[in-house]
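Below is one protein, fold included:
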Amino acid sequence: MRRMRRWAAVGLVGLSACAPEGASSQGQDISDLYRVFVYVAIGVGAIVYGLILWSAIRYRRRSDALPKQTRANVPLEIVYTALPILIVLGLFVLTFRVERDVDRVASEPALVVNVSGFQWGWRFEYPESGISVVSTPSEYPTLVVPAGETVRINLSSNDVIHSFYVPDFLFKRDTVPGQPNRFDLLIPEPGRFRGACAEFCGVDHGEMNFWVDALPATEFDAWIEERAGAS
């Protein structure tokens, strides 16, 4: 029994390690929610398969005699009806809270970047410093942000629907013509992350890639000064 518990613990740790890790604070919230769903699914699966195995062994055929028949078991029926409802309600409430936190925007973000998608590239504009970074046929653009600071991303599109997607953030948001979108992004640690358009938008959809560089505050300030001076 002790060995079974040990293997079960190892399995849970292994599944937890397979859960995607969000590189942004919002992505970390999504990752934590994912783990809750995995653990609940494991528990439900263990109960279901355990009962199937127990029933197959306990009520296996021993003779041609008809076993005792039970017409109803009201307490049991209440339990197996109420328990799934409570699980679903709990997951719904938890999901609602996480999505609310992910969609919450700060009243005073440290930086605002206007991101526009077009066929087939991206434009990153920093209105406070007059900097603009645009895709070229030979180079993917880089969205540079300060690590550890809240960044407001304003999304727009002038042609068709695109989708701002960074897998490491466990997050995507559509850019819809005539319907501006926005979200806040906070990347705790410096790093480089690849992004792409996740909405098919035409012939060169596969070329709508970009990079996100999260820099330490001093390096970000130096980048702003350099790009502002060049423009």
Q: What stands out?
A: The chain has four helices and ten strands. The chain has a mean pLDDT of 89. The beta strands are 111-118, 121-126, 131-134, 142-146, 150-157, 162-166, 171-175, 181-186, 191-197, 209-215.
